[in-house]
Write a structure and sequence with these properties.
YmcC-like fold; 55% strand; globular; mainly beta; 268 residues
């Protein structure tokens, strides 16, 4: 397979990982970082002692007002842009300090990840379990591990003017028609909360917190002994409604203008 056919495919697939990850949470730092300090808030929990899973399949450690984490919850979205599609995001399982989610696209692509929760903060691509994220499609599969992770994606408390950032470094392989290609992906995202706005999508009209993010994705694949770098720059506006989750995302940049809108949802 020619390099000029492989690189765009890798780019689009990694964009799927990064774009979806930007819409979710934050949590535990890697082992080489300073351990979290004890939380003395009224919740009565600490960063190392998460509450047990409740009878409704939720976890107190994952209690975020802008994204309900409950086993069996699901959201269906439509994507408009260069690669139009639909996908359903489902919470497969919730434990005392994390959860597993899965995206299933109409095109047949699937993405599954482990997440970590701490006091309402959620973190994507959990480094504690080795394989952090996987994507599968016809003739293509990706298997990445998180090698470095800092910052927050979706904080437990968000007020207008608040800012936060996250850095994720992934390393792994992409397999295309049985050809294994080493790849790395370093993503830096910086976000700022704007305020509550009224947003109308197919699922209805919602009062949702808007936060804007700038994302830089540095991709490097190695093929036939040669390194092939690429850099992608994305800007996104995201709207999350209390007790419902992601309502809408509008992304622009580097020929990847797209919109994700909520079609329907089910939260136990």
């Amino acid at each position: 397979m020619k390099i000029n056919k492989i690189a765009p495919l890798l780019t689009v697939t990694v964009l799927v990982i990064a774009t979806l990850a930007c819409n979710l949470g934050a949590g535990k730092a890697p082992a080489n970082e300073t351990p979290a300090q004890e939380d003395t808030s009224s919740s009565g929990t600490t960063a190392t002692e998460a509450p047990a899973v409740g009878n409704d399949g939720s976890s107190g450690a994952c209690d975020n007002p802008l994204l309900p984490i409950k086993a069996g919850a699901s959201w269906t979205y439509k994507i408009t842009g260069p690669v139009p599609d639909t996908f359903t995001r489902a919470i497969l399982a919730v434990n005392a300090d994390g959860f597993t989610d899965k995206d299933s696209f109409g095109s047949g692509v699937t993405r599954e990840s482990q997440w970590k929760c701490e006091n309402g903060n959620l973190i994507a691509l959990n480094p504690d379990n080795g394989t952090s994220s996987s994507i599968n499609a016809e003739g293509v599969s990706l298997d990445f591990q998180t090698v470095e992770l800092t910052g927050v994606t979706l904080p437990a408390v968000m007020n207008p003017g608040d800012s936060w950032s996250q850095f994720i470094s992934l390393a792994g392989t992409e397999t295309i028609n049985d050809q294994v290609i080493p790849a790395t992906n370093q993503t830096t995202t910086s976000c700022t909360a704007v305020g509550v706005e009224s947003v109308t999508v197919e699922a209805g009209t919602f009062d949702a917190m808007r936060f804007d993010c700038q994302t830089v994705i540095n991709i490097l694949i190695t093929m036939n002994g040669s390194d092939i770098p690429a850099t992608l720059n994305l800007n996104s506006s995201n709207w999350h409604a209390e007790n419902i989750g992601l309502i809408k995302t509008v992304s622009t940049g580097d020929a990847y203008d797209s919109t994700v809108e909520l079609i329907s949802y089910s939260i136990p």
